[in-house]
Structures are given as structure tokens and as C-alpha cells.
Write a structure and sequence with these properties.
Blueprint (H helix, E strand, L loop, with lengths): L1 H30 E5 L29 E5 L15
Length: 85
């Protein structure tokens, strides 16, 4: 009986984490935008065409590395682009 309760708790935890991640992504999509070409090496928010994880860009200003910025800000930053270079 104890193992069934433990398995149920574990499954509930996994589902809760998934829902929190989905809502965070939705919130970011409403208030923020991806901005390419302005990231310092190792400070990107997610994968690039050459790397698979956040924080793995290899050069400052890498054209395919991005960070989230408040909507409307990317167009105001010199050297940035809302699309990958």
C-alpha cells in the first residue's frame, strides 16, 4: 500500500512541474520576446543551432543565440535582431 501511495505522489509531482513550466512559457511569450545577436558568451537562454542547452553560446554576439527581453526592446538595441542571423 505504501508503494502505491508513493507512486501516486511522484506522478502528481511530475504533472505539477509540467504545468508550472507550461504556464511560465506562456507568460514569457506574452510579455517578452526573443532577441538574437546580443548575448554574452555562455549567457544565452536556450539552445542555438550549434549547442543544445542554455548557457552554452560560445561567442559574444553570436547570431543564433538569444535571450528574452521585454516586448518592443529588441528593435531598440544596436546589433540585435528578432530573428536568428
Amino acid at each position: 500500500m505504501k508503494s502505491k501511495s508513493l507512486a501516486t505522489s511522484a506522478l502528481a509531482s511530475v504533472l505539477a512541474v509540467g504545468l508550472v513550466g507550461a504556464s511560465t512559457e506562456a507568460l514569457a511569450a506574452k510579455k517578452f520576446e526573443k532577441c538574437y545577436g546580443i548575448v554574452k558568451a555562455g549567457k544565452n537562454d536556450c539552445q542555438t543551432s550549434n549547442t543544445a542547452c542554455a548557457g552554452t553560446s560560445t561567442a559574444n554576439g553570436q547570431g543564433d543565440a538569444w535571450i528574452y527581453v521585454p516586448k518592443g526592446t529588441c528593435d531598440k538595441i544596436v546589433g540585435s535582431s528578432p530573428k536568428p542571423a
